[in-house]
Amino acid sequence: MYDLLFKIFMVGTKNSGIKELIDRKLDGGDINDTTLINGVALAIKVIHMNEKIYKLQCWIVDLDKDLERFIKFYPSYLAGTHGAILLANLGDMNSLTALEEWISLIRQTCKIIPIMLIVNRPKVDQERQISEQDGIRFAQEHELGDYMEIDNHNGLTTNMFEKITRLILGQYKRYQ
């Protein structure tokens, strides 16, 4: 049983490590009930926070796949979304700018929802191309709700879902 259900749209640019992130979180039991439908993985994440239970229905798009044929589905996939997580590759500056199109699509479809930028280091030996200042500046320029760096290899992913939940709750309070 849960107190609230939130729909989260997650998109990872090419080589962002979104598949590894989701697979690792699945192995740890943090995400369950994963299904793949028309290029989008659906997963459930449960958050226990402030004596409440939040169920996050995550719609996960991995841009390593050939998704051109599925692009017509995204407006319907985005309908009813409460928040979005955008994932870029710390070792690829182009992965950050590739998110601009998704920000536009999310804003056109969902109007005002919190969007969180995650910059990930998917490979241990990868050199950094996106500095923390670059990520923060990108988030500010695109009026994103938060910025966070993670590393698939050292477990720094756990509070990503808590942060987006807090952003969504803050959004609801603002419009009540």
In short:
The protein has 176 residues and is α/β, with parallel strands linked by helices. Helix content is 33%, strand content 32%. The chain has one domain (4-174): P-loop containing nucleotide triphosphate hydrolases (Rossmann fold), CATH 3.40.50.300.
What does this structure look like?
The protein has 176 residues and is an alpha/beta fold. The protein has one domain (4-174): Rossmann fold. It has helices at residues 18-27, 74-78, 93-97, 99-110, 132-141, 159-174, and strands at residues 4-12, 31-37, 40-49, 52-62, 83-89, 115-121, 146-151. The radius of gyration is 15 Å and the shape is globular.
CATH superfamily: P-loop containing nucleotide triphosphate hydrolases
Give the count of helical stretches: 6
Q: Find the CATH topology.
A: Rossmann fold
How many strands in all? 7
Please give the domain count.
1
Radius of gyration: 15 Å
State the main characteristics.
6 helices; 33% helix; 176 residues; 7 strands; alpha/beta; Rossmann fold; 7-stranded mixed β-sheet
How is the topology of this model organized?
Layout: E1 4-12, H1 18-27, E2 31-37, E3 40-49, E4 52-62, H2 74-78, E5 83-89, H3 93-97, H4 99-110, E6 115-121, H5 132-141, E7 146-151, H6 159-174
Parallel strand pairs: 1-4, 1-5, 5-6, 6-7
Antiparallel strand pairs: 2-3, 3-4
